[in-house]
Design a protein that fits this description.
Structural class: alpha/beta
Strand order of the largest sheet: 4-7-3-8-9
Shape: elongated
Number of strands: 9
CATH class of the domain at 83-104 and 245-453: Alpha Beta
Strand content: 5-15%
Order of helices and strands: HHEEHEHEHEEHHHHHEHEHHEHHHHHHHH
Largest sheet: 5 strands, parallel
CATH architecture of the domain at 83-104 and 245-453: 3-Layer(aba) Sandwich
Helix content: 40-55%
Distance between the termini: 105 Å
């Protein structure tokens, strides 16, 4: 009897265990199915693999077809890359630019150079209550391509660069700038959109980065975080009356080509005395390498400035009213007057709050130790500070690479250190010679217009 009862109890126990296992198995299958469906929904709608895994497996992903072609031109001794537009822009886009469309936002692109006073200049427009401001959206493009040989976009596509990019990637810069102007942030590469520069200098993009940072602490799905946070930023950009973008990387030629595709767009071409820019770059440790590398950097900067000034002059000579050449020294020495002039150029009213900001930002007794700060202490002293510390070697570099730039822009060239040390003596003229006598005959305008169409 005992063995029989024992066997009966064992059979009952085994049956119960089998039922329990089947129940656990069903629960496990249901759980895995739910997780799989959830992950698939996230991925197909707004989720994605982590960025590092995506870049690592870039060859298995869709490659973006940009239709970009490269045309090499010669000007000023440097090779240019050109965005191949299928049709030349209408003459109206060259002569005076497109007519403003009422009710549509105004676009302002500030084209400048490293340490040219562009951060402060752009702050004059970003202080507008109804403005959307982006600081250096092209900052991460070249770095990302060099590191990953690819650009990953918010919409999930990846563009590969198996051979890297050239030393003068202006065509790529032009392509990357376009979605910023149109508030199409889902077509921006993620490295540029999530650039930490925006946390410090782009007040309009900063909320997006803070939102993405918060969500990414909860989940590694990068695209989900971006798409969740980007909506409010897109709305703010679209609804802003003035969109302002500052860049030190885009050439004037590419900036002008963007004007043909964006209504109500104006360009401020900001220049500064190359001697001051070089010294400021050196003092802020923005120049790296040996003397040979330094000379190469100076040569590239002066060549690009020369090309840009050549192109800007052509635009002004045919009566383009949407382009303005401005010297940083004029803003630093006459901030209120130049701010009024700039606001007249963009067609925006000048508020008392903005004038107060300009007065406070240009007349404070504070140290000038921040590379990208907008408050420059006494702006006149800041703009002239280079004269008391520049070394004769810098003057030789200017003489070698940039001397021909000084006279058209109204800067006095001298190798006399004593002259530079005497701040009572001027280093620039009151007016820019390049802008004088630009009224040409109709036949001359036709020649320049035809040239610009084929540039």
């Amino acid at each position: 009897m005992r063995p029989t009862r024992f066997l009966r109890n064992m059979c009952t126990f085994v049956k119960k265990m089998d039922k329990h296992k089947m129940r656990l198995k069903r629960i496990a299958i249901i759980g895995v199915t739910i997780l799989g469906v959830t992950a698939m929904v996230f991925y197909l709608t707004i989720g994605e693999l982590p960025a590092t895994m995506l870049i690592r497996n870039v060859n298995t992903w869709q490659v973006k077809d940009t239709g970009l072609t490269e045309v090499k031109l010669k000007r000023g001794g440097s090779q240019w890359q050109h965005y191949d537009a299928s049709a030349a822009p209408p003459t109206s886009l060259i002569e005076g630019g497109p007519m403003p469309t009422p009710g549509k936002p105004k676009l302002l692109l500030i084209v400048a150079y490293l340490r040219s006073g562009s951060t402060f200049t752009s702050s004059l427009f970003s202080q507008q209550p109804d403005s959307f401001y982006v600081f250096e959206p092209l900052h991460m493009v070249v770095k990302t391509v060099k590191k990953h040989m690819a650009l990953r976009y918010v919409n999930g596509t990846v563009r590969r660069f198996p051979q890297g990019i050239s030393d003068n990637p202006q065509s790529l810069f032009r392509e990357c700038m376009d979605p910023w102007l149109r508030c199409a942030f889902r077509k921006v590469d993620t490295a540029s959109l999530l650039d930490n520069f925006h946390l410090h200098y782009s007040k309009s993009i900063k909320p997006l980065l803070l939102c993405v940072k918060h969500i990414r602490s909860l989940t590694p799905l990068t695209r989900y975080a971006i798409n969740h946070c980007i909506r409010e930023t897109v709305v703010k950009c679209i609804s802003a009356n003035l969109r302002v973008i500052k860049t030190i990387r885009l050439s004037m030629e590419m900036a002008h080509s963007l004007m043909a595709e964006n209504e109500n767009m104006k360009i401020v071409h900001l220049v500064r005395d190359p001697r001051a820019m070089f010294l400021s770059q050196s003092n802020n440790k923005l120049i790296k390498g040996n003397n040979k590398t330094t000379c190469s950097q100076f040569e590239r900067l002066c060549t690009r400035m020369r090309d840009d000034i050549y192109f800007t002059r052509q635009l002004l000579e045919v009566g383009n009213k949407n382009v303005k050449l401005v010297r940083y020294e004029d803003i630093a020495f006459n901030p209120i007057e130049m701010t009024k002039e700039l606001y007249t150029f963009i067609g925006e009213p000048l508020t008392k709050g903005l004038l107060r900001y300009v007065a406070q930002s240009t007349s404070l007794n504070m140290k000038d130790g921040c590379p990208f700060c907008t408050r420059r202490g006494n702006s006149t002293l800041t703009a002239s500070k280079w004269r008391s510390t520049i070394h004769p070697a810098f003057l030789k570099l200017v003489d070698q690479h940039c001397k021909d730039l000084l006279q058209p822009l109204g800067y006095h060239f001298t190798e006399d250190i004593n002259y530079l040390r005497n701040t009572s003596l001027p280093t620039f003229q009151e007016h820019i010679p390049l802008l004088e006598h630009i009224n040409l005959s109709e036949s001359a305008k036709d020649v320049i217009t035809e040239t610009l169409r084929h540039v």
